[in-house]
Amino acid sequence: MSGRRILHVDMDAFFASVELLRHPELAGRPVVVGGGGDRGVVAAASYEARVFGVRSAMATARARRLCPDLVVVPPDHAHYAGISARIMACCSEFTPLVEPLALDEAFLDVSGAGRLFGTDRELATELRRRLHEREGLWSSVGVASTKLVAKLASEAAKPLPGSDAPQDGVCVVEPADELRFLQDRPAADLWGVGPVTGDRLRALGVDTVADLAVFPLDALVSHLGPAVGRQLHDLANGRDDRPVVADLEVKSISQEETFARDRTSLSELDPELVRMAERVARRARRRDLEGRTVHLKLRWADFVTTTRSRTLDEPTADGLVVARTARELLQGLPVERGVRLLGVGISALVPAGGATQLRLDLGGSASQSADRSAALRAADRVRERFGESAIAPVVPPPTDPRG
Amino acid sequence: MKFRCERDVLTEALSAASRAASPKAQLRVLSGLRFDLRGDQLVVTGSDLELTISSTVEVAGSEDGTAVLPAKLVTEIVRHLEPGAVEIETSAERSRVSSGRSEFTLLPIPADEFPTPPEIEGEQVTIQAADFAEGLRQVVGAASTDESRKVLTGVLLAAETDGLRMVATDSYRLAFREFPGSSVLQAGQRVNVPSRALQELTRSLDPEAELEITLADTMVSFRFGGFVLSSWLIRDEFPDYAKLIPTDMPNELTVDRQVFLDAIRRVKLMARNNSPIRLEMQDQAVRLSAQNPEDGEAVEDVDAKFVGSELTVAFNPEYLIDGLEVVPGDEVVLQTRDPQKPAVIRPTESQDLLYLLMPVRVS
Predict the structure, then answer these.
(1) A213 and A145: one domain?
(2) Is A311 in contact with A296 (CB distance < 8 Å)?
(3) pLDDT at A401 (0 to 100)
(4) Interface of chain B against chain A, CB under 8 Å?
(5) Which of A19, A48, A99, A105 is catalytic?
(6) CA separation (Å) from B315 to A314, B250, B271, B331?
(7) Phi and psi of A313, rounded to 5°?
(8) For the domain that residue A231 is a member of, what is the CATH number?
(9) Is the Cβ of A362 closer than 8 Å to some Cβ of chain B?
(10) Rounded to 5 degrees, what are φ and ψ at A339?
(11) How many structural domains are present in chain A?
């Protein structure tokens, strides 16, 4: 399959780096994220910790022996998942074909994206730059014509523990160079080679990919079985036509906007917030989804980003509810510092009209009744026919908390 | 200020008071505990401005005084010391906590910024703590934790003609407890007490004690032994709960409480992501089921007596469990009307307790 360009992006020490953002006081110290206690295991290690030989999946107790000053931070998966969703959203700005492999890595099929973003290297650099600008996290990116080589290339682009040598974090392997790139690697680097297969290959005298590439296919099949044998033979010869399969399941719906001029008051921000909440809710309704968690994102004049979220009692696709929640999240934030960008979103999406926890009629609360939901859909149809301004959301103005 | 005190006595006083301290408060002094020593009497106070808890203990005092020490730290230090006497000595510059060969020096927080709990003047009644504590335990879990609707974060204490009532609701369920013949309040009086204060009260309350309740217009205080808890009241009008309590309940299921609870807990394992469990009520049994598209499904039949017409109602299993846990007795009654109307859990014997819960509508 010539012409295909696959990009693999892998966040650098993801969990540990995320924790460092939350705990700047730990910067420069050897940090691992993982379980403490006698049986805890390291989930991720900062590069400072790796210098001591600390690796992920190592027992925390052993890591402590290797590095007595080690700081162990307990994992917070909900937080990482939130950031991961934004990372994937950022990737999908380059191509709709994004296949997440884990919270911190994804394949992108960028075959058609070159025209917009320039060369592979320029595109990869731009992706890394955006991820860093938005999330404060560095990543390593590999680009090649197959998933196999792209993944190995991002590995090659990783920072080396303890090395201060400048790394641009991008490794592009041109089609003509792919076989050479593969050949000298240990066969164990290939997809599907675990410890058992690795041992069998070594027993056959196969150490490197080059050894494997020239090993007779028949012999390989008889030793490893037809499926594995054939697959390894293909991979070793640079043949890997597995496509990037986009994860079509929507994880979150959000809207963000950078203002031409920084906003410095709640009254300036409120109309924007209401408008964005309504658009987010409408996109959810169009997909027949409702979200339980409302997110608010602010980027300040100094480019520092603040995010807030709140999980509701019941999922919603009602712009009024999204706006009200986002407004509550906005309360108490120092908007006078100057807001450069505002974002509103919902996540924890579920199909609309599923199970609904009913409420007692206490009066005064926003009703999530079938009536309101039907009214919202009717309004959507009116807007589709008569334009955006035909019906505008009315949200009660914010009450001054001091008043 | 200088005194000595047994570690365990001091630990208890400090942990009680520190539950009202707020470590994340903007006002740093609120993350501290105030120590007031007069003679041999030490009063330890923690406050987050809304809730104040103080604990009085007898110590061997040698120098009167007042100091504020970081709540979490000083409580943890005292808790971890070797058993035996603890000595605390404070001056303007530093505080010393010591016991045996351990010695901690803490930087004090200026004491003059610590809020003085207002004096509460008002109606005072003394009751046996046991009943009151039981009632609180039964209703307080139904109060809301959503600060955006403050009025529901409290427990209503209401004096009706036939006795005291406690009511709490988060709008999905409502717990109601009545104490016939008991009057804590003046006739017709209704107060809405923050559930957080009551939760702390039930934690510390000794059921054997006599509980003294003082009620003013805007505050309430509870006192027993050396323990005083005071809190602001919630001013907003509590919703009219009486009209929510259904009278016409044609379907009635009577079931062994523990067997039902165990079955719900098992079936709930398949009800992930807030998905409901279904109760299919039939003549001699109730069938519990739950499913989710990712994992599969669970079904369990529980023997029961059922009067009424067969129906299926879905509930949030957590709310069912909460209700079944607070209702006393070996058997419980679950009353229903239809799959979208409130259901009621109540004991078989008495009418004093009622737990109302809303179903989940399933398509």
Answers:
(1) no
(2) no
(3) 46
(4) 146, 148-149, 152, 169, 171-174, 239, 244, 273-276, 314, 316, 340, 342, 356, 358-363
(5) A105
(6) 14, 18, 11, 20
(7) -65, -35
(8) 1.10.150.20
(9) yes
(10) -105, 120
(11) 3
Amino acid at A276: M
Taking the CA atoms of residue B339, residue B340, residue B342 and residue B346 in that order, the dihedral angle to the nearest 10 degrees is 10
Do residues B70 and B31 touch, judged by C-beta distance below 8 A?
yes
CA distance B166 to chain A (A): 17
b/e burial code for range B238-269 (CB count within 10 A of at least 16 → b): bbebeebeeeebebbbebebeebbebbeebbe
The number of beta carbons lying within 10 Å of the beta carbon of residue B4 is: 17
Residues A156 and A196 grouped into a single domain: no
In Å, how far from its chain's centre is CA A263? 28
Total H helices, total E strands in chain B: 6, 27
Nearest Cα neighbor of A313 from B313, B166, B319, B327 is B319
Residue after which a domain boundary falls, among A175, A210, A226: A175
Q: What phi and psi, each to the nearest 5 degrees, are found at residue A362?
A: -95, -5
Is the confidence at residue A381, as pLDDT, over 50?
yes
Residue A140 and residue A31 share a domain: yes
Q: Does the ipTM surpass 0.85?
A: no
Q: Compute the Cα dihedral for A350, A352, A358, A364 and give only its sign.
A: positive
Best interface-test mutation with B: which of A293, A356, A365 has the largest number of B CBs within 10 A? A356
- Residue B216 corresponds to which amino acid? A
Do A135 and A1 share a structural domain? yes
Per-residue pLDDT of chain B (363 residues; tens, 9 = 90+): 999 999 999 999 999 999 998 877 667 788 899 999 999 999 999 998 889 999 999 999 999 999 999 999 999 999 999 999 999 999 888 899 999 999 999 987 888 888 877 778 877 888 888 888 999 999 999 999 887 788 999 999 988 877 889 999 999 999 999 988 776 677 778 899 999 999 999 888 888 888 998 888 889 999 998 899 999 999 988 999 888 888 889 999 999 999 999 999 999 999 876 689 999 999 899 999 998 766 788 999 999 999 999 999 999 999 999 999 999 999 999 999 999 999 999 999 888 999 999 999 886
Q: How many CA atoms lie within 13 A of A270 on its CB side?
A: 16
Give the strand order in the sheet containing A289-300.
A252-263, A339-351, A289-300, A305-316
Quote the domain boundaries for residue A323: 252-390
| A365 in contact with B, Cβ within 8 Å | yes
Same domain for A307 and A257: yes
Q: Is residue A244 part of a domain?
A: no
* Sign, CA torsion A390/A393/A396/A398: negative
Residue A105 bears catalytic tag: yes
* Measured CA distances, B230 to A135, A157, A340, B194, B220 (Å): 45, 61, 45, 11, 6
Does A361 contact chain B (CB < 8 Å)? yes
Same domain? For A171 and A190 the reply is: no
Measured between beta carbons, the chain B residues lying within 8 angstroms of A350 are 273
Cα–Cα–Cα angle for A9, A15, A16, rounded to 5 degrees: 110
- Say if A209 falls within a structural domain: yes
Residue A137 sits in the same domain as residue A203: no
**DSSP three-state, residue A254:** strand
Go through A275-311 and write b for each residue having 16 or more CB atoms within 10 A of its CB, e for each that does not.
Answer: bbbbbbbbbbbeeebbbbbbbbbbbbeeeebebbbee
In a domain, A397, yes or no: no
| Same domain assignment for residues A14 and A153 | yes
* CATH for A159: 3.30.70.270
Q: pTM value?
A: 0.59
| Full DSSP string of B199-242 | HHHHHH--TTSEEEEEE-SSEEEEEETTEEEEEEPB-SPPP--G
Asked whether residue A30 is domain-assigned, the answer is yes
